[in-house]
Hints:
CATH class of the domain at 101-237: Mainly Beta
Distance between the termini: 116 Å
CATH architecture of the domain at 101-237: Beta Complex
Amino acid sequence: MASTNLVKPRITTFTSSTLPPRSLFITPYHPTRTITTGIQLHSALLINRIRRFHAGARRPHLSPPTKKVLMSASFFSFLGSLFSSSASAENNMTYPDQRTDEEWRAVLSPEQFRIIRQKGTEPPGSGKFDSHYPSTGVYNCAACDAPLYKADTKFKSGCGWPAYFDSVPGAVTRHTDRAFGMERTEIVCSNCGGHLGHVFKGEGYPTPTDERHCVNSISLKFSEDESGVKGDKQESKV
């Protein structure tokens, strides 16, 4: 019969002088504490990222396709809110052309109605008149056909919308627009009240007026005939 050799376990006794350092002992695992600590750490990192972002810190690296999509979405969203107007624009005037919304819908496309009658804005660079620079002619209101801007007042601003340094006298009315917590100057057609865009002054463009009428292309239509342009009225301001 084969004998079985049993190995006697070795027992080590520690004294105060031979006790291993405290760092060798493993702290007991606490699931709840670990989850809480993880949430706190994640929150701290998130807050830190937000602070760095608003402080102008360098943005985290994104792949080109992702970066392009995010920038396009945020950029157009920002511009849409920045250059649009709202019902808060001070517009208490009445206009010669008093067609109702139903009547305007019958003659305007849905996008024209959104911009001209509901004070929307088109994406920058999307309008057909952004890069349109004829030597003569006139830009009329797309809604009522009233002359608004002569071709020789159009200039290249690089903003993404048609830019003019002056309008046909009396053709454009200005309103104070306090939408989105800022004060700007909205411009509308003096004949029908259709929204055109906004006017900005003192930007340093080398033009006679140092003004930029930033106008939606969809609010305009071009005609080579300038015979209907009159120059005996002054621009209205409200």
